[in-house]
Amino acid sequence: MKIAYLGPEATFTHVAVQSVFTSDEHIAYSSIPVCMDSVAEGEVDLAVVPIENSVEGSVTTTIDYLVHEQPLKMVGEIIIPIRQHLLMSKGQVHRSKDIEVIYSHSHALAQCHTFLHNQYKYTKLEPVSSTSAAAKLVSEQPQECIAAIANEFAAKKYGLEIVASDIHSNSYNHTRFIVLQKEGSSVETNYFQKNHTKATFVIMMPENRAGALHQVLSAFAWRQIDLSKIESRPMKTGLGNYFFIIDVVMGYDDVLLPGVKQELESLGFSVEIVGSYSTIQL
Amino acid sequence: MKIAYLGPEATFTHVAVQSVFTSDEHIAYSSIPVCMDSVAEGEVDLAVVPIENSVEGSVTTTIDYLVHEQPLKMVGEIIIPIRQHLLMSKGQVHRSKDIEVIYSHSHALAQCHTFLHNQYKYTKLEPVSSTSAAAKLVSEQPQECIAAIANEFAAKKYGLEIVASDIHSNSYNHTRFIVLQKEGSSVETNYFQKNHTKATFVIMMPENRAGALHQVLSAFAWRQIDLSKIESRPMKTGLGNYFFIIDVVMGYDDVLLPGVKQELESLGFSVEIVGSYSTIQL
């Protein structure tokens, strides 16, 4: 099977893919939309992209592209712990007090805010497209006193030294990745259990109706269906117009979830169940 | 009065500040947290920072820093239309078909996705810290065939030419800015009407209780209080733990909003009303 992931190599998404899809071909794509396009166009069988971090919140590109641009089916969820380290070229390690620029993904810089504020208050922080790209950039300029924030895998891949480890602020720092498949695809994903434990709804409000969200939640609440997440995202039609993405703690069934969908649709909501799946927590 | 804003000069925040606080001193700060610290520490009287864009959604740094790090009072809201243009140095305009790198803030690059995909599919896109920083960077390298996406004010300030105007994808593209003041500060902000039309709540769930959000919304719904926004953000204590930021379409009163707060607190929620204010829409 071919698996697209948000590259370059040695990103956290790559770590998630390598841990689960041990015997498949992994192909790096340069952005989340391109990953998702590749599975929609049949270049690959599955795509793995980040959807939420426990500190930074949702990866809005993933949610927005899925809802507005490229409908795909969620067939699995992978959760991995995120550990960030400060990396330098071997020859520069003795100058770690005098780092001129620290490169990383903006989320990683934010996750390490406290460490950076305490140790590198006056050092320039430069956001780049991924933690892995930051490590690559540092490895390509061994004569410069610069550093990257990235994972251990990136340190190994680019031959960098870990100058400070586990520099992220929250000890509970995890990222959720979703596994996406083309609607109607018959590829079997045996990696995930058949007993689905979660389902994801995308719900659009009929108009800017007062109490509409309350109505939506009532449909879940009286059935005692637990929500593990609710997130509003802009409809892109104006401030104040949102759609909601809701994760429920049960898989698709024949009665309850179809009941929610039918009722809300009758009330004028647009309701899509974008996936029913199980979770692999590493 | 001294007003802190998210700089550098010529950002959209600067445009918002200049439009409203016409006769005050405006001081640029390099990041949203630093803006907010400056008002908390009394260096300035007010701070203006972005909180939401109609296309990209919330500015999570603002919400998270306000809730987790630096409590301040919201005393006003400014809404401005966002118009993005492609800018080049005058001497490079004839080479606009061969641009090598386009710099901008990551949100602006996302807002112009369709234009970029159609016209500059193979051009390298490079996120930098602000649209204004992108314009400055391009102006400093007039010999390079590079471009920035930024506003008209930045084009004027850095002497760049507009090569393509209004390249943002959604014609309805607005950003909301909030005006923040230190709790207990006596500075009068005469710029905003006394008739408050909005209030903002921050609500934390007592535990991961099923139906808790439904309960919160019920407290607003039966009083027929309209919500203009609800957003979940991570508590940073683990995937699945959120707080909610809720905007209601009424100002603080003596009965209804205190009633919501008291009831929810009795039920074990933590409830903070972080502001009651009016809006200036430009």
From TrEMBL, chains A, B:
Residue ranges occupied by any ACT domain in the UniProt entry: 201-278
Annotated source species: Gottfriedia solisilvae
GO term, biological process aspect, one: L-phenylalanine biosynthetic process
Keywords: Amino-acid biosynthesis, Aromatic amino acid biosynthesis, Lyase, Phenylalanine biosynthesis
Classification via InterPro entries: ACT-like_dom_sf, ACT_dom, Chor_mutase/pphenate_deHydtase, Preph_deHydtase, Preph_deHydtase_CS
Prephenate dehydratase domain: residues covered: 2-182
Pfam families: ACT (PF01842), PDT (PF00800)
Pathway annotation: Amino-acid biosynthesis; L-phenylalanine biosynthesis; phenylpyruvate from prephenate: step 1/1
Cellular component per GO, a single term: cytoplasm
Enzyme class: lyase
NCBIfam families (alphabetical): PRK11898.1
Protein name per Swiss-Prot or TrEMBL: Prephenate dehydratase
UniProt-listed Enzyme Commission number(s): 4.2.1.51
One Gene Ontology MF term: prephenate dehydratase activity
Keyword Cell inner membrane: no
Catalytic activity: prephenate + H(+) = 3-phenylpyruvate + CO2 + H2O
Site (Essential for prephenate dehydratase activity): 175
